[in-house]
Amino acid sequence: MAVKLKVCTFNLRVAVEGDGANYFFNRTHRVLETINTEKPDLIGFQEARDSQREWLRENLPEYTVLGCGRDKNYMGESVLAAFRTEAFSAIDFKQFWLSPTPSVAGSRFGADQSSCPRSTVAVTLKHRESDELLRFYNTHLDHKGAIARLLGATQLMQDISVWDGKFVLTGDFNATPDAEEIKTITACPTLPIVDATAELGGTFHSYGRLAEPSKIDYIFTNADCDPAESYVVEDHPTDGIYISDHNPVCAYITLA
């Protein structure tokens, strides 16, 4: 039986009090409203610090939220994979670091990478109404180094390429569609990968400060997907408060 799933990539913006009115814990009602309105089956969250992970797990009772901090003590900023608990069984889960030593917490590439470690979460899921397994990846590439992003994208594709099944990859890639790190994914010679966001415009707006938002948030998949169905969740401020400094992005994939 074919199952159509709604996938969302959602950069929460770290909880920084310097954001003033848009400090995360002033925006939680808008974050929750967005999730309850969109009702995604899968959500890839980026930029969730310890307090934000705790808040998500306490306030999203319908979802299982997986992932830990990226620092060597497994605390700090994180990427998270969330899925509807009643719809899926989790077969396995892993978190790995984008580095030459992916199993070492807090590890990173050298070269031009920032001081921030970067990690990826991957959970293999079985939907109760589908015979296919789905591997759900979520990541956040480096904000500073193009070489580090390219190395990270290459590492991701190496991991994805040994998975013999359907996958979906969400994330903030900190790169525009013409960048080599994005082409590493979209032009993969061994996998027919669809950029579900190919027809969408900018996603990072910096709390409305950018006249032309930058396209850096993506959803990639080898499952059946029509990019024309994808959309950016509009973020009009309420009393000066935004959902985030990124627009959430939604797409649909279909499993057999």
Q: Can you give the mean pLDDT?
A: 97
What is the 3D shape?
Answer: globular
| Beta-strand residue percentage | 25-35%
Rg over CA atoms, rounded to whole Å, is: 17 Å
How widely separated are the two ends? 6 Å
**Any low-confidence stretches, pLDDT <50, length ≥5?**
none
List the quaternary state of the chains: single chain
Major sheet: arrangement of strands: 3-4-2-1-12-11
Q: Report the strand count.
A: 12
Helix content: 10-25%
Structural class: alpha+beta
Number of helices: 4
Order of helices and strands: EHEHEEEEEHEHEEEE
Task: Please summarize the sheet with the most strands.
Answer: 6 strands, mixed
Structural notes for this entry:
This protein has 256 residues and is an alpha+beta fold. It is built from 4 helices and 12 strands. The protein has a 6-stranded mixed beta sheet with strand order 3-4-2-1-12-11, with helices on one face. Strands 5-6-7-8-10-9 form a 6-stranded mixed beta sheet, with no helix packed on it. It is globular, with a radius of gyration of 17 Å.
